[in-house]
Amino acid sequence: MLLAINKITTPRIPWAALTNAGILYVWIIVIYSIKKNINIAGHVLLQTFAISILTAYIDYKIGWKAWSINIAIPIIIMIANITMLILTIISHKKYIKYAIYQLIIVIFSMLPVVLISEHLIEHKILSMVASGICFINFIVCLVLCTKDIKEAVIRKFHV
After folding, report:
1. Could you say which of 14, 35, 78, 129 has the lowest number of CB atoms within 10 Å?
2. What residues have CB less than 8 Å from 7, skipping those under 6 apart?
3. Considering only CA atoms, which of 18, 21, 46, 20 is closest in space to residue 32?
4. Cβ(134)–Cβ(106) under 8 Å?
């Protein structure tokens, strides 16, 4: 259906192929998520990286307008951090299972800050909001789970 609309409306721009690739990607991920019993935080991390790479690739293939680093990746980072915050609130007793993934997402969330400092991002507000949400999420997670983190460190390192 999308291919037909693409051929009729804008035959020189292959947007239907990109849209179909995105739809296929989502279906594969949904099916994989349902069939596999994996750590949800690990899945969030994997998806954050995969979708960021996919959007940068699509941006590159259609002529690099930098929308991937100005808009898409900051939004992906915000969604990943909000998802991790919800996971932490819902199951803060299991936060230790999510802690490493949370730290990796925090490190990845620094990407917009690096891109801003290198003057590679034109629209800085969305990237700054994404980094701000990351810091707030990290602080909230530490506040909610300080006792659990302390107990885990004592248990693992015999402190």
Report:
1. 35
2. 16
3. 46
4. yes
Compute the distance between CA of residue 17 and CA of residue 103 in angstroms, rounded to an integer.
35
Nearest to 113 by CA among 86, 134, 140, 138: 134
How many residues comprise the chain? 159
Nearest residue to 110 (alpha-carbon basis) of 48, 65, 55: 48
Question: Which one has a higher pLDDT value, 33 or 74?
Answer: 74
- Which residue, 75, 123, 82, is CA-closest to 102? 82
Is the CA virtual torsion 86, 87, 89, 95 positive or negative?
Answer: negative
Summarised one tens digit per residue, pLDDT across range 15-61 is: 787 888 778 877 877 777 666 666 788 888 888 998 998 899 888 87
**Quick one: DSSP state of residue 145?**
H
Residue 51 burial (C-beta neighbours within 10 Å; 0-12, 13-18, 19+): buried
Could you tell me the CA-to-CA distances from 58 to 7, 21, 72 in Å, in that order? 20, 10, 11
Distance separating alpha carbons of residues 154 and 89, to the nearest angstrom: 23
Amino acid at 41: A
Contact 76, 48 (CB under 8 A): yes
